[in-house]
Amino acid sequence: MKAQSNLVTVIIPNWNGKHLLQICLQALERQVLKNFDVIVVDNGSEDDSVSYMEKMHPLVNIVKLNENTGFAKACNIGIRKSCAKYIALLNNDTEPSDSWLEALIETIESAPDDVGCLASKMLQYHHPTLIDDAGDILTWRGGAFKQGHGKEAVHFNQKKEVLFPCAGAALYRRHILVKLGGFDETFVMYLEDIDLGLRIRLLGYKCFFVPQAEVLHVGHGSDISRERYIFFTARNRLLVFLKNIPLLLLIQKSPSLLYGWLFFWIVHRGHFLHLKGSLSVVKQIPHIVKERRKLGNLSKLSVIKTRQLISNEWPEISIFRLLRNTLFG
């Protein structure tokens, strides 16, 4: 597993995932592609994850943190530790197929320079004939969705362009990540890969889904409370748009964004943390302004192309049906 030519580094953030790491790391040891290294960034685990890896997987490079810094910061630390040409991000609750890395590297090495990242074919661990994620989409109502989720995997056997990958199993050109400063650590958790993927697309790069790069994914591998989920998803949905979308387009799409906000507020049954998370964006205004200026100097897409990039589709039920179901069961 030790890198020979340092072509790619696989980065795995971990927090109390000892029960998951055995399957994930053993799968990496079976990879057909051999010239890669592995960095596990441990977010202050208390379940002997580190001692397990030191004993059973001594070739893994372990970065030990004293506390849970979140997914975004853990990934950034791993990216800074790597000198590889490519960065593969992998969740600890995954089992990549033996040819996973080989399929991704063969695709990116033969792709034009404007292909900046690749999405894996993520399958449901307990139902491997079904898709977990075949590339992510972002809608103008603020929702981010997994393409193909719950559908038969046999229907997803063609390489195709997608909006951006799920960072649970994705490949990136490292120089792009460095140029963008990696993940935005303000996000802490949830939608940080959506934000990164959107910024990569705004720079003019493309993303492709690679069906040969199969990965089994358990999902919800880290035990995050419902309260933290509601707070951060409410806040981060707004951050994605306020940071990255031109002001004129934000104004034009404000009715759609409001619709989405109300939809998720009803989904969470008016939970006060949904409102608190949304209002906490106010504290991020200096950061938002700074990031908008930075991205404005790098962005290659016009307002028209940016509008087309984000989907008008809405995979969920209507807000009226949701409200009816919530009130009357």
Account of the protein in words:
The chain has 13 helices and twelve strands. With 329 residues, it is an alpha/beta fold. It folds into two domains: 8-217, Spore Coat Polysaccharide Biosynthesis Protein SpsA, Chain A, CATH 3.90.550; 226-328, no CATH class. Strands 1, 2, 3, 4, 5, 6, 7, 10, 11 and 12 form a ten-stranded mixed β-sheet that branches. The protein is globular and about 50 Å long. The mean pLDDT is 94.
The protein's oligomeric status is single chain
Please bin the fraction of helical residues.
40-55%
Proportion of residues in extended strands: 15-25%
Q: Please name the fourth-level CATH homologous superfamily of the largest domain.
A: Spore Coat Polysaccharide Biosynthesis Protein SpsA, Chain A
- The total of helices stands at 13
Q: How large, in whole angstroms, is the Cα Rg?
A: 19 Å
Query: In the CATH hierarchy, what is the class of the largest domain?
Result: Alpha Beta
CATH domain topology of the largest domain: Spore Coat Polysaccharide Biosynthesis Protein SpsA, Chain A
Number of domains: 2
